[in-house]
Amino acid sequence: MPVTPPHSITELLDRAHAMAGLSLGEIAAELDVVVPEDLRRHKGWGGQLLELWLGASAGSRPEPDFPALGVELKSIPIDEQGKPLESTYICVCPLTDVSGLRWSDSVVCHKLNRVLWVPVEGSRAIPLAERRVGMPLLWQPDEQEAAVLRRDWEELMEQVALGQVERITAHQGEFLQLRPKAANRRVLTEAIGPDGLRIQTLPRGFYLRSRFTAALLSRHYL
DNA sequence: TGTTGATCATGC
DNA sequence: GCATGATCAACA
Question: Is the entire prediction scored with pTM above 0.70?
Answer without folding.
Answer: yes
